[in-house]
Fold this protein.
Amino acid sequence: MIIEIWKNLMYYSGEWKRNGYVTRNVTLLWEGGREEADMSRTNYSAYMAIKNKIMEIFRSETFEKNKLPSEAALANRLGISLVTLRESLMMLALEGYITKRHGSGNYVHPSTLDYENRTYCYTEYLHKKGFHAGIQLFAQEWALADALEAKMLGIQEGEKLLVNRLVYLADEHPAIYTVHRIPASLLVREDVAQMPFAQIHVLVGDFMGRELAHALNEYYAMSVEGEQAKRLNLPEGSPIMGNRQVFYDITDQRVMYSTNCFHPDYYQLRTLQNWDLGR
């Protein structure tokens, strides 16, 4: 997934370089050949370090009309090459933090800097909302996949699943009731009670031997009943938001199907629409 992001970045920017930061990490064989790419974790970590430094500047300083200093000045301040800075800024533009305008400059969007729904785990989301976040795992059981679970996971009905039921807590109050379903055939470890539900990518890596790529989310309105109402400490029939979530590895195989019920006092969904991506 990282490779595709960087490839799209180069196409989008029109600044493909055959030397410097990118081509040290990515090799592409065109003309009827297959593409081979190797983005090292070290260099991705380097990019993240640069991004974090830039984001800290965005958060701690203000700019007239939100226009950033020149790219040369930013590169000099950060101690990096102009090419590396431009690649980093293009990634930030694709993520919606800034807008790049040829001949005008780069503009930062303070409204997007601490956007809660950019987070990749619910504990991080709750923490950003100002709560002390925790997880209470109250059930792990083996079950057979029903028709919907089989469809969502791309498996046969009746296949064995590990079903994990837990609640994310906000200041010790139930905030999100979650059920994770994992095909037993994908598990490579037996000590499932040790699963780190706070970091799904670590769970997938450690307990399935796979690399998590992305998740698809479907949100819907619902009313809580039975176990859901009990775990969220809400009256039965209360209207809330729920979602279905399917996690995929880098080969695009489905590795986990989750359902989440959100207490309205602790979780609200906001989405960011980046108009530059729709042009």
Q: What stands out?
A: The radius of gyration is 22 Å. The chain has a mean pLDDT of 83.
